[in-house]
Amino acid sequence: MNKFLDNHLLEEISTAMNDASYEMEWYLDIEDGAVVFTSEDFFDEEQKKLLEKIEADEEGKRYKYIDKKPSGEGWQQMEDFIHSLDDIDETTRRSLFRAIEGRGAFRRFKDIIYEFGIQDKWYEYHGREERKEVLDWLFSLDLIGEEDISKGMQLYEDSIARRKKREQNLMNMKEGVKVLCSDNHGHSDKLTPGKAYDVLDERPDDLLVRIKDDRGKICWLPKSHFELL
Question: Would you state the pLDDT for residue 39?
Answer without folding.
Answer: 85
